[in-house]
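Quick start: what a row looks like.
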Amino acid sequence: MAQGGDTAEHRGQEPSELSAPTAAGRLGPPPWLGAVFLLPALVFLGAFMLYPIGYSAWRSLFDASGDTFVGLDNYVTIFTNPDTFIALRNNVIWVVVAPIVVTAVGLVFAVLTERIRWATAFKIVVFMPMAISFLASGVIFRLVYEQDPDRGLANAVLTTVSDTVSAPSPYPGASPRDDAGLHPAEGGYTLDAEVAPGQDPVLLPLVGLPPDDLPSEAEPATVPEPQESAITGTVWLDFTPGAEGTQGVIDPDERGMPQMRVEVLDGDAVAAEAVTGPDGTFVVPELTADTYTVRLAADNFTEPYRGVNWLGPTLVTPAIIGAYVWVWAGFAMVLISAGLAAIPREALEAARVDGATEWQVFRRVTVPLLSPVLLVVFVTLMIYVLKIFDLVFVIAPGDVQRDANVLALEMWRVSFGGPNDQGLGSALAIFLLVLVIPAMIFQVRRFRQERAQ
């Protein structure tokens, strides 16, 4: 004890001073030192957050020029402008659909990663879109949703599946000559005059198709010989490139149209049918009635399936939400995976021992234990969804941007996209802030409750 006292005296301090609290009744550095370290962050926060919010609130009370005080007129315009109502409607769709879908997909992915051997690689692939900016993601999905199947991935997949299930029409856009005696009717093009078996061949000239679009097996058109108890004829492209030909007559350079389906009608019923050969000729044998009607089936001329108009007025919002899910699914998966790792395995094993199926374990044990994490993910996504701008601006074409409009895009559009009414734009910004604040308060309270537990 003496030695300790000597050490304290040697340092010029009393022993009690080593553990004595400060004058404010607490240990540690003085409060002003903490304020000094916080000052740069507070200045940054005030300059880049508080001041813009305050100035936007003040600017929203003035007109477009900023010279005339209009009070709350800009806020009245928000709730009377049809464009704002469209944006508000779309925001409601986003808030209801996008967070739920992203959370559900993230939950499914998180559960899958616990059951597959290549979980790490799977997580990397799913999370990778988070490393891409919304602008780049918008450009990617603008190409994915292209209407032309040769450029748009989505329609390329759909058309490939459609062509696999049902073969495409061989001659889309082809039509008969006006003087060919064929008229459009239900089921295709029907010949006006009835045809008797054994008479001269039926000539069916078509136009409206470039010669280069004929199948590679197409051969020069010929006229078949008449056959007893049969109807014969030729279907050909009545067009001679670079030369003058005779309409309705098979010229030497004109080729037949193979794989054309020809139907023979007895009344309204199809009695028989045939398919043209490489030279365009067809034969329908074993006909017993006196006369028949010849028809070129409608499926010879139907336009091929070109996919879905993803960026049209009807589907543009769901299409953009699909892009949003692609970007944020990895974020949800990572957070939910962390929550899954914290679940006691004993609870899951106990449920399985009691006879619960995997679906019952998932629905009644896993999901309830994950509910705090799922709620955090959902609220976080809802905050981001309320401020969605980039994807809508990049993906939606100009002619349908009004149909895909959201509040953040409407704020930019009226402020800088033409009207340059920054008073109304500031009012929209404040309105959007008011919508976001409740979700932020809820999120902060959740974090504080979790820290207190």
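That is the whole record. The CA atoms of residues 13 and 81 lie 75 Å apart. Strands lie at 175-176, 182-185, 188-191, 202-207, 231-237, 261-266, 269-275, 281-284, 293-297.
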